[in-house]
Amino acid sequence: MVRNYIPKALRRVDFDDPNDHFAPLEQDKDTRKQQAYDYWLSTKDQEDPSSLHKVAESHKVAYSTLRDRKNGVILKKEANQAMQKLTPVEEDIIALWVTTLATWGSPPTHLQLVKMAYELLQKRGVYEKLGEQWIARFLARHLELKSKFVNPIEKERILATDPAILLSGLLYDSTTVRYYDKAR
């Protein structure tokens, strides 16, 4: 079965939140951590500053995480970026490409996704292999994308974009037209 990717915005809307019908399905943990830390920074110089415990509880973030951020520890996401083969810009390019193809009705397969990543690496002169879990981790870093199984009809439509199949279909149509033109 072919796996394709569709943006979360095209999947469904979360109607659980009565105030905002277009709230994101999953709020990024790192975003919540950053918002909590920024809020604590903005209130720490006030007369009655919020405690780290209260800020952590209100933003649904672990107290130890906020304490570590206060003491200068950087996010794991930022610390691990240097070890990734693709740069954040290259990953954003791939995410945009996936979103564009999904909008057109033909989301890429796992193989196409990996090929696109290798093309970007080769343009930069890097010829290293991607890890076995690259796709899963790429999707974890880009929450706007989601893997999806497609039904056979969609698979046939995707396969119909193959240049060889398109060419054979065009040749068949032209011979059919010539045959019926002669019959008139």
TrEMBL record:
<dbReference type="InterPro" id="IPR006600">
    <property type="entry name" value="HTH_CenpB_DNA-bd_dom"/>
</dbReference>
<dbReference type="GO" id="GO:0003677">
    <property type="term" value="F:DNA binding"/>
</dbReference>
<keyword id="KW-0238">DNA-binding</keyword>
<protein>
    <submittedName>
        <fullName>HTH CenpB-type DNA-binding domain</fullName>
    </submittedName>
</protein>
<dbReference type="Pfam" id="PF03221">
    <property type="entry name" value="HTH_Tnp_Tc5"/>
</dbReference>
<feature type="domain" description="HTH CENPB-type">
    <location>
        <begin position="78"/>
        <end position="148"/>
    </location>
</feature>
